[in-house]
Design a protein that fits this description.
seven-stranded mixed beta sheet; alpha/beta; five-stranded mixed beta sheet; single chain; 328 residues; binds zinc ion
């Protein structure tokens, strides 16, 4: 599998010179993962994460969500401490920590990372250095320990210092207690990456799902880290089976959602996947599939995030093309 993904990475690299030729007349610097207006997906996203105001939302029962400084951060309070899920971008770590203390009045003692991406682990250095226990699925530790390349979105990161790495890891699932709340951490196999954690917080009826769901934007599928469209859909189906109409769903990015929102998003992924699979079956190339605009009727609602419809289409195409190569 890794081997195939490597090959895909090379295939993307080989289209890069064409992109560069097209844009040099516009005097725009570009890197791999070109998305159109001279910016990679990651550059566009980072700009938002550096500049959006930090917002606090109470989820009730001692739970808070902090948003704006990268991926959403969830805080769960008990008598003497705060456990947080994800740590934002590194440039805003102290701002986030101050905001968490102001809302919870308790020090952060534990951190769970939903996956390895910089906008969910950027505060790990700051928090790990102050003695916070970092918990994650075992692949997150591997990914943060060495340099990772995700050429498709223009991301190169990893090789974090040792204090930023998870010290408690699990493979399939793990249960934590935080005051009256029971947190069940689950990995349903590769989805957004190969180290995703979904966290169910039982008494509060909250599910923190990380980047398998961006609300309401097309997601990144991190193929280089083992992610796939089929894995995303599989994980979403498991979450739908574990939640109800009252569950508050905390997405990786965007406002708190309902199970109905998650169902709509899952159905869109299934439809786009099906359309692209049909086009691949008809022998279409990636560019031809993009030209066929298989996401068109969903773009008004879902296409205005940092993942454009074209980039999303290319990621789904590549995920499915990789799968068909592997089965030959
Ligand atoms: Zn991510």
């Amino acid at each position: 599998m890794k081997h195939i993904l490597h090959k895909l990475g090379l295939a993307f690299a080989s289209i890069q010179p064409i992109v560069l030729v097209l844009v040099t007349t516009g005097a725009v610097m570009t890197v791999a993962g070109q998305v159109g207006a001279g910016e990679t997906v990651i550059q566009k996203a980072t700009e938002q994460f550096e500049n959006n105001p930090l917002k606090v939302t109470s989820l009730g029962k001692g739970l808070f969500m902090f948003s704006g400084d990268g991926g959403n951060v969830t805080a769960i309070v008990d008598d003497g401490s705060t456990l947080i899920i994800d740590s934002g971008v590194d440039s805003r770590a102290t701002e986030l920590n101050d905001a968490i203390f102001k809302a919870t009045l308790r020090p952060v003692t534990r951190l769970v990372n939903t996956h390895w991406h910089f906008d969910h682990t950027g505060g790990n250095v700051f928090l790990g250095s102050s003695g916070v226990t970092i918990i994650a699925q075992e692949n997150v530790k591997k990914q943060l320990s060495s340099v990772q390349d995700v050429p498709f979105v223009g991301l190169r990161d990893g090789h974090y210092p040792s204090q930023a790495l998870p010290t408690v890891t699990y493979s399939k699932s793990m249960v934590l207690r935080q005051g009256p709340q029971q947190l069940t951490l689950v990995n349903y196999g590769p989805a957004h990456t190969d180290g995703d954690t979904i966290i169910y917080i039982a008494r509060a009826n909250v599910a923190v799902v990380g980047d398998i769901f961006s609300n309401p934007f097309y997601p990144i599928i991190d193929l280089a880290s083992g992610g796939s469209i089929d894995g995303m859909i599989y994980s979403l189906d498991r979450v739908l089976a574990q939640t109800d109409g009252q569950t508050k769903i905390v997405p990786g990015h965007g406002p708190v959602a309902t199970r109905a929102d998650l169902q709509e998003y899952r159905d869109i992924l299934v439809q786009v996947r099906q359309r692209i699979q049909v086009l691949i079956g008809a022998g279409k190339t990636m560019d031809e599939v993009v030209a066929a605009a298989p996401t068109k009727d969903f773009d008004a609602k879902w296409g205005s995030g940092y993942v454009t419809p074209d980039v999303f289409t290319k990621m789904v195409f590549s995920s499915l093309a990789g799968t068909s190569t592997a089965s030959r």
